[in-house]
Specification:
alpha+beta; Butyryl-CoA Dehydrogenase, subunit A, domain 3; about 550 residues; single chain; Butyryl-CoA Dehydrogenase, subunit A, domain 2; binds flavin-adenine dinucleotide; 2 domains
Length: about 550
């Protein structure tokens, strides 16, 4: 009898051919393929870090690193409140990939570079490193950022700083849940938000009682709760609580100095729509041991030293997210054919892709400029002003631009962009987070108003920098004049705040792009963001711009 099966197998196989699909976007160097990043790093003073940036760029875009990002998000962190014997342990279990990414970040000083190296440009170099690693996986960036940002607040007390700063800035990642004295590397988290209020931390109800003496570096006990506590496996947390003299800032270790478990108890992990690899917990403080940092009653000002830096990292993180979304879209459209032509060659798609690239380049230009301001703020007053005002402006604008950018990039991939098997789905869910935490959009706008009213010199320094581009682009000049006029009016400032902050952001981004000297990019940016051609979606670039050149600059084929 003749066997029919081989014939029918062949027929089935012939119905299914994989074609017109792009190759996986992997094994690319996130530094060397990013002209805007390389130029910004050089321009802002980080060129000495080339070798490290190239090495880390190679790792971040490697197949292996991208796989780690998938794994870290696929397996959610798990809360383990008690051990087998019933002892309270308050542990969080992570996939080994998460630990690997943490280890890589810490080994490459993403948490410490500006604090351990007094070279000029360390904030710039670190920002570039962070910008690349967040593209591989964003969630683990949370504890890295908090550890980095916590250092100025830890330094408010010399005794605490002596014990903690060397461990927090060390380039050894030690995830073990054990007393800090026995660890060579520690990480830091932050607890401000409570159930009744997050933006308005003055409503914090957690109580702090001095165990003995009152004062900085002295021991207190905290009783209360925190509604959001990200990276709850950190070795210590900067927290706000009400002491006798008002809201104060504390360092709450996971273990007490005598080696016993500190009653900082994890109630549950939040079930988040994005930022999945990063655990965020609800906690109770049942008489948790803490050291006061700085004066009692100065808590908000003291923790803001940390918050200013976490906000800066939100700008860099969102700029990185837009970079990754842009290259995903460009890569797909370079390989996908529809209606007989590559998508990247279709005029309408060119307009969208080039526009996405403009947004990404403007974001990294602003982020890296802020990094230089951080590097110079110790010596130059006007740079302090750029940090003060520019961080709030950038946090508002760059983070707020990210979700819609992610969505447009996703649409460039068509239906495949919606699939959980592409990076786009994860990026889309991650995109709103930077705007919401660390002071949501409106809170940033109110902060800008506060600076304008209380520190008018900051606004002047900021505008002086914007005006360095005067005379190079007609649209920019008239936008800047209009913005100046709007800023002069004190009428209903809160109601108009978003409009003013958007204006400040766009004016600075345009000014930076004009001064970086790529006219294709700056002219197109001014036309689409500042001029009559500006609109609410991507792909509205007027006729006459070289989209091919903008796309090619964004991501070398
Ligand atoms: C994934 C994730 C992780 C987090 N991790 C931490 C953490 O580790 N530690 C921590 O302390 N917090 C953390 N948070 C909390 C976060 O910082 C707060 O959610 C945020 O600050 C907003 O506070 P809220 O949720 O209480 O909102 P609310 O303060 O209730 O604000 C709600 C909205 O009102 C707006 N608003 C507030 N005041 C005004 C006003 N005067 N005028 C106009 N609009 C206003 C805000 O901008 C916001 O859009 C995390 C949040 C998320 C999403």
């Amino acid at each position: 009898m003749v066997n029919q099966y081989p014939l029918s197998d062949k027929l089935h196989a012939d119905t299914y051919t994989v074609e017109n699909q792009p190759p996986a976007l992997q094994d690319i160097n996130y530094y060397l393929s990013d002209t805007a990043l390389m130029e910004a790093t050089q321009r802002e003073g980080g060129s000495w870090a080339q070798e490290k940036l190239q090495r880390c760029g190679g790792f971040c875009g490697s197949t292996a690193a991208i796989k780690l990002g998938w794994q870290a998000n696929h397996t959610k962190p798990e809360l383990i409140t008690h051990d087998h014997y019933g002892n309270r342990i308050d542990e969080v279990g992570y996939h080994p990939a998460y630990h690997y990414l943490m280890k890589h970040a810490i080994k490459n000083q993403l948490h410490s570079l500006p604090w351990i190296d007094d070279k000029k440009g360390t904030h710039v170099a670190r920002a570039a490193l962070n910008y690349m690693q967040t593209q591989t996986e964003a969630g683990h960036g949370c504890p890295i950022t908090m550890s980095f940002a916590g250092i100025p607040t830890l330094r408010l007390d010399s005794k605490v700083a002596k014990d903690w700063v060397p461990k927090v800035t060390n380039d050894i990642y030690d995830p073990d849940n054990k007393p800090y004295a026995s660890k060579s590397g520690c990480t830091i988290g932050m607890g401000m938000t409570e159930i009744q209020g997050g933006s308005d931390v003055r409503t914090n109800s957690t109580q702090a009682h001095a165990i003995g003496q009152h004062g900085s570096g002295e021991a207190y006990e905290l009783v209360g709760h925190k509604f959001f506590l990200s990276a709850p496996m950190s070795d210590a947390f900067l927290m706000l609580a009400q002491a006798k003299a008002g809201i104060s800032c504390f360092l709450v270790p996971r273990w007490r100095p005598d080696g016993s478990k500190n009653p900082l108890q994890l109630i549950r992990l939040k079930d988040k729509m994005g930022n999945v690899s990063n655990a965020s917990a609800e906690t109770e403080l049942r008489g948790a041991f803490a050291w006061l940092l700085g004066d009692e009653g100065r808590g908000i000002a003291n923790i803001l030293e940390m918050v200013a830096l976490t906000r800066f990292d939100c700008v860099i993180g969102s700029a990185g997210a837009m970079r990754q979304a842009s290259i995903q879209a460009i890569h797909h459209c370079r390989h996908r054919v529809a209606f007989g032509n590559k998508l990247v060659q279709q005029p309408l798609m060119k307009n969208v892709l080039a526009d996405l690239a403009l947004e990404s380049e403007a974001a990294v230009a602003l982020g890296m400029r802020l990094a230089r301001a951080l590097d110079s703020s110790g010596e130059v007053k006007s740079e302090q002003s750029i940090v003060r005002l520019g961080t709030a402006v950038g946090k508002y604008w760059v983070c707020k631009r990210t979700p819609n950018h992610a969505y447009e990039a996703m649409e460039c991939l068509g239906g495949s962009g919606v699939m959980e098997t592409t990076l786009m789905a994860r990026m889309y869910r991650e995109a709103p987070v930077n705007s919401i935490w660390e002071g949501s959009g409106n809170v940033q706008c109110l902060d800008v108003l506060r600076v304008m009213q209380k520190e008018p010199d900051c606004l002047q320094s900021y505008l002086d920098e914007v005006m360095l581009a005067k005379g190079a682009n007609r649209i920019f000049d008239s936008y800047a004049t209009q913005l100046n006029n709007e800023l002069k009016s004190n009428d209903q400032l809160q109601f108009r705040a978003r409009r003013l902050v958007e204006g400040l952001a766009l004016a600075m981004q345009a000014s930076l792009l004009i001064r970086t000297g790529n006219n294709q990019v700056s002219d197109a940016f001014c036309a689409t963001r500042l001029g009559h051609a500006s609109g609410h979606t991507y792909g509205l670039m007027p006729i006459g711009f070289d989209c091919d050149a903008i796309i090619e600059r964004a991501f070398h084929a």
